[in-house]
């Protein structure tokens, strides 16, 4: 393949190693930028016309021709040919086939450096908006379940040991709040990436005084990147999206880990719908939570994309370097992974069956030991002393092979004279939960307040 047919081939007289051609090509993955590339080119044709670099007639020919190329991509009839090393080359080649030599005027003053930077931001902006929709849908599912199942109580855990009773809805909202923070982070990233590189040229700027603010408005950017060197080389938005993807997947992974445990026979709190489970090839009784295990596993995949890209990005000199071709596959993969993961997580959560009685059976009187200490606090005993007394009560119950609630008033009085007949009122899980009524606690009122706040946020966003 002669180098003369390449966009950059005028400098070269020899042929490129065919292996190098394949090594250099990116069309197999950056073709998904086709729409952003064509929309950016249409805007650039209009900007060229504004500066009388091309005539109004030529602008119309270019814009209409680019629309025809876009139609081919959307209908699946666009044919990638030998020599189409990237999406920009492919589109420009096809445009020339459709409208003739006027296609050669489109690239005036523009470099593939500012072109790809623009395409990538356009694509990232629209893709992240889709992810934001999926994320909010997931939050909505969690909030709706929390509202309906607010009276279900369960053990809360620290160190995977039963700790204190909580509401199932309180557990659900743990993740809803995490996902809300993920949504807010993504919104901020979308705002930051929404600035225009086009008009930066290869690195030094555009020589035809292109109206970059017009371009920004035409393409829906909030403004322009004010330094051409930065415009062609900045990929911070890629790192931010990959970091966001990693953190969001970590939240999904932790959610999955909880449900994997809760779905075991040892817990028996939940069962996944058949649609999100698989069986064993050997053991007929098995119902495996493969959806959750895949979600947990894919968090590592996404983090790997982040770490790989950062290693590529960290040592690059200014401005554009071919290393930046490695910026697309990681984010494409991460976006695809997040898209599927968010939707699967919504499906799992919306179809999950819970077993309130089994959850209640997981409660035990020793989980109210803290309430015992708090009982004495209300009697005026310092907490550090009451903590020690409650621990002694737990130890006494263990020595007698009974539960702490079966100890007598006399047993308690041996530990401290502040104990009275009302000690028996402590052994009430609902009361323990309702005592946690400070803002953010697990009482019914405070959980309802969380639901109201999250519902309001969803309505406003």
Automatic annotation (TrEMBL):
UniProt-recorded Gene Ontology molecular function terms: argininosuccinate lyase activity
Sorted UniProt keywords: Lyase
GO BP term, pick one: L-arginine biosynthetic process via ornithine
Protein origin, superkingdom: Eukaryota
Catalytic activity entry: 2-(N(omega)-L-arginino)succinate = fumarate + L-arginine
Enzymatic class: lyase
Pfam families: ASL_C2 (PF14698), Lyase_1 (PF00206)
Domain Argininosuccinate lyase C-terminal per the UniProt entry, residue ranges: 367-434
EC assignment: 4.3.2.1
Gene Ontology cellular component list: cytosol
Location of the Fumarate lyase N-terminal domain: 10-304
Pathway: Amino-acid biosynthesis; L-arginine biosynthesis; L-arginine from L-ornithine and carbamoyl phosphate: step 3/3
PROSITE patterns referenced in this protein's UniProt entry, alphabetically: FUMARATE_LYASES
Signal peptide region: none
PANTHER family: ARGININOSUCCINATE LYASE
Family, per entry: Belongs to the lyase 1 family. Argininosuccinate lyase subfamily.
Name recorded for this polypeptide: argininosuccinate lyase
